[in-house]
Amino acid sequence: MDLSLAQTFLEITRTHSFLRAAERLNISPTSVSARIRALEEMLGRPLFVRNKAGAALTAAGKQFVPHATSLLQVWERARQQVAVPPDRRAVLSVGCEASLWEPLLLRWLLRMRSEAPHLAIRTRIGESDELLEKTAAGGLDLSIVYAPQQRAGLRVELLIEEKLVMVTTAMRPKRPTPKDYVYVDWGADFAVQHGLAFPELSNAAVKLDLGPLGREYLLSAGGTGYFRLDVVRSHVESGRLRRVPNMPEFLYPAFAAYAPDAEPTLVQPALAALREVTLAFAGAKKARRSRKA
Question: What is the CATH number of domain 162-252?
Answer without folding.
Answer: 3.40.190.10
